[in-house]
Structures are given as C-alpha cells and as structure tokens.
Design goal:
By secondary structure, the protein is mainly α. It has one helix at 12-61. The chain is rod-shaped, with a radius of gyration of 23 Å. It starts with 11 loop residues before the first helix and ends with a helix.
C-alpha cells in the first residue's frame, strides 16, 4: 500500500492516477485502524479471560 503512481498529467489518466493514490492512502488508513482495533480488543479481553481461567482452575481444585 506504500506504492504511489506518479501523476504527470492533468488529463483523465492523471485523474485516474490521483484517484488510485487516494484509494491506496485510504486502504492503508483502514488497515492501520483494523490493526489497532485488533490489538486493543485483544488487550482488553486478555484480563477477563485470565480471571475466568483462574476462577475455573481454582474451582476444579477446591
């Protein structure tokens, strides 16, 4: 997503190249948002899952 098309003309092909560059920028932004969401969600769920595992393990032993 880091590759950009060189925009040299202001005709239809130049507009297409500019639009493709904007699309690539948007896709990179959405990929970063997705990655951050997954990282944050994983982090937030880790603690409750650890507590549930701990309680379950202690009930089995006790």
């Amino acid at each position: 997503m880091d590759v950009r098309i060189s925009v040299e003309n202001r005709d239809e092909i130049g507009e297409l190249a500019q639009t493709i560059n904007e699309l690539a920028k948007s896709l990179k932004n959405y990929e970063n948002l997705r990655r951050d969401f997954i990282a944050n969600t994983t982090h937030e769920l880790r603690t409750p899952i650890s507590i549930i595992k701990f309680l379950f393990y202690n009930r089995r032993i006790g």
